[in-house]
């Protein structure tokens, strides 16, 4: 089932998501719907708050742009930054309208402790593009967008464009 994607400046995107404690069919259904929504929207990651659910669940597929499918589900993910600081070039987000993109500081290697769809605790190391996607999506769980990491001037210019876009009924 496709889910509507919440977009900036919706205040729900600023809320900290709640940990998942019950691993039932509703969580599996949500993860499946999020993956379907992500694929249809041509994304590589999606966090539950982006579809109006304040739960600590993210889905990613770093191979989606390569026409392959390698979906991953992370519940209650916790990140440890273990790599070098790099710049994630041209980062975008399904919740940030007007296809805005920016260079964002990220780590190139992370350790992720999470639960799978069955509630089992797992730990993995990710590098490169998958590490960037996971950091981006976990930011959503903490009520942060990538535009929170850009300069004040760039943010101000972007917000002016969004206000105009909203005033015009969401049409560019």
How would you describe this structure to a colleague?
- This protein has 172 residues and is an alpha+beta fold.
- The protein has one domain: Alpha-Beta Complex (Peptide Deformylase), CATH 3.90.45.10.
- Helices cover 27% and strands 26% of the residues.
- The chain is built from 3 helices and 7 strands.
- The protein has helices at 25-40, 128-141, 152-167, and strands at residues 45-47, 57-60, 72-81, 85-91, 102-107, 109-115, 121-127.
- Strands 1-2-3-6-7 form a 5-stranded antiparallel beta sheet, sandwiched between helices. A two-stranded antiparallel ribbon has the order 4-5.
- Strand 6 (109-115) and strand 7 (121-127) form a beta hairpin.
- The longest helix has 16 residues, at 25-40.
- The protein is globular.
- The protein starts with 24 loop residues before the first helix and ends in a 5-residue tail after the last helix.
- The model has no long low-confidence stretch (mean pLDDT 95).
């Amino acid at each position: 089932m496709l889910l509507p994607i919440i977009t900036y400046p919706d205040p729900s995107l600023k809320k900290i998501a709640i940990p998942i404690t019950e691993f039932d069919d509703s969580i599996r259904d949500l993860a499946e719907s999020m993956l379907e929504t992500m694929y249809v929207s041509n994304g590589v990651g999606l966090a539950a708050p982006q579809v109006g659910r304040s739960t600590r669940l993210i889905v990613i597929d770093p191979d989606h742009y390569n026409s392959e499918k390698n979906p991953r589900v992370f519940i209650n993910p916790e990140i440890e930054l273990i790599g070098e600081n790099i710049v994630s070039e041209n980062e975008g987000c399904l919740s940030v309208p007007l296809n805005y993109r920016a260079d964002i500081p990220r780590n190139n290697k992370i350790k992720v402790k999470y639960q799978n769809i069955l509630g089992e605790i797992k730990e993995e190391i990710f590098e490169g593009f998958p590490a960037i996607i996971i950091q981006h999506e976990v930011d959503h769980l903490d009520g942060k967008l990538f535009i929170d990491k850009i300069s004040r001037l760039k943010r101000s210019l972007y917000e002016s464009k969004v206000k105009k876009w909203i005033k015009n009924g969401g049409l560019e």
